[in-house]
């Protein structure tokens, strides 16, 4: 069998096995050495290709697509620094537990380490950020080799999805010529009729034994002032079972904005969503000492909650994780419960007696009501960042996705997202918490053809303007609310802002860009507006949701005014709560 046929059948068997293992989308950055993979991916009838020329943007696009679709997404690039540009998104995928399949083309072994062009060391180049690395064999034509590629394709997809999800890297050395021949008969192999993976994997569900349940029950049976905390997580079944347990136990639930608990049709009587606003006060934190804390999901975004955890290091704490892994950055002595969180709630609920309405729960609810009143009722109708975020959260459409940038964007959503019956999902890159790649990730989420709204700051937007090309190229429905305070607004709240050298602060931390983003909108053919009032902002949002394609709504603000506006809100809330506690 001559080279081209060997190359074609080898690659086609691999790609076909990806499809049988559940891969439906591949993001390709064109290049020469990756020709066999790219062309074969495009040829396969069950795989949808997305062509993005910038590898860094492509990887974050794939990340967003994988988050929204909850499926493994494949990435294909050529050899050399193309693969290195994947690194930031792979780091984020690792920490946010998102399955990606990284397929890098490479020079064959005889062209490595001799000064050949576009030949860098790609062996284990992503280090510990991938769950599995494998250097694929050079193409050969035999049943054993076809079974080899199918086995590794199946294993790669399953590994990305098993346990704690994450990225997997396969490196493909290819010799020239590189162009497959799709006129060959039966290139997808004999297994085409079997619609199942070459190596099926079966994962069981973890649950506690009766002895373990009894042990936890004995630890908690005399404690009444419990606290549930739900951080960033995506399990759609958790909301109902945890509110059922909390209602029976009569304890509050502190729900992070990415917990998926603040929105939806489940009961929200025990949910406290404004805790970040009042836990900022040291006296209030001291008045709310719990008997135990049980946390689900990652650590919440709120820094005030982090202080609260540190100050209560002596009380029993539990972290419920579906798989083995440690996400406990506070450093407290913690009971790690590795079990399916939905089953955990159902198991514990059977052993918890019905409690009457508790003063402990009432206290949290009263504080939540006070904070909610000050955050929702706004007498000053100026278009501040806070007011714009609040209005956006009210206007975001049902059954859509809100993608949230880091730094101030996610913190404003934490502050202003109130409980609601509206059904929409919230996503963010909160693994490594970087400001890079956010535009591309949000556009990737829109590749599912679900309408996406992105809330983002000007620095993060600038970092990833290349991501807008995919929205233009594929006519995706994305509304971007761009909070432009001309720099890094988050630093205004940090100790760096207290320096007396304001010029140095602006140079190193404020970092004003002085960019006119209307030119960016024109470059990518986006609908663009700069509302000056709350009413014009509402109108711009409404219009963007009626139109197809990309819209950019720029809200201009001042960093110093924004800081004082937020601090006044927090002070009003804390003063009223402290007064209530003294009465």
Automatic annotation (TrEMBL):
**Pathway, per Swiss-Prot/TrEMBL?**
Quinol/quinone metabolism; menaquinone biosynthesis; Quinol/quinone metabolism; 1,4-dihydroxy-2-naphthoate biosynthesis; 1,4-dihydroxy-2-naphthoate from chorismate: step 2/7
Cofactor(s) demanded: thiamine diphosphate; Mg(2+); Mn(2+)
Which residue intervals define the domain Thiamine pyrophosphate enzyme N-terminal TPP-binding in the entry? 13-125
The segment(s) forming the Thiamine pyrophosphate enzyme TPP-binding domain are 441-555
Keyword Metal-binding among UniProt keywords: yes
Gene3D superfamilies given for it? Answer: 3.40.50.970, TPP-binding domain
Q: Which Pfam family is an annotated match for this chain, by its short name?
A: TPP_enzyme_C
Q: Which residues form a coiled coil?
A: none
Give every Menaquinone biosynthesis protein MenD middle domain span: 206-404
Q: Which reaction does it catalyse?
A: isochorismate + 2-oxoglutarate + H(+) = 5-enolpyruvoyl-6-hydroxy-2-succinyl-cyclohex-3-ene-1-carboxylate + CO2
At the top of the EC hierarchy, this enzyme's class is transferase
Q: Which UniProt keywords apply?
A: Magnesium, Manganese, Menaquinone biosynthesis, Metal-binding, Thiamine pyrophosphate, Transferase
Keyword hit for Manganese: yes
GO molecular function per UniProt: 2-succinyl-5-enolpyruvyl-6-hydroxy-3-cyclohexene-1-carboxylic-acid synthase activity; magnesium ion binding; manganese ion binding; thiamine pyrophosphate binding
- EC numbers listed for it are 2.2.1.9
Q: How is the cofactor bound?
A: Binds 1 thiamine pyrophosphate per subunit.
Subunit info? Homodimer.
Q: What does this protein do?
A: Catalyzes the thiamine diphosphate-dependent decarboxylation of 2-oxoglutarate and the subsequent addition of the resulting succinic semialdehyde-thiamine pyrophosphate anion to isochorismate to yield 2-succinyl-5-enolpyruvyl-6-hydroxy-3-cyclohexene-1-carboxylate (SEPHCHC).
Q: Spell out the protein name for this chain.
A: 2-succinyl-5-enolpyruvyl-6-hydroxy-3-cyclohexene-1-carboxylate synthase
Q: What is the lineage of its organism?
A: Bacteria, Bacillati, Bacillota, Bacilli, Bacillales
Which gene is transcribed and translated to give this protein? menD
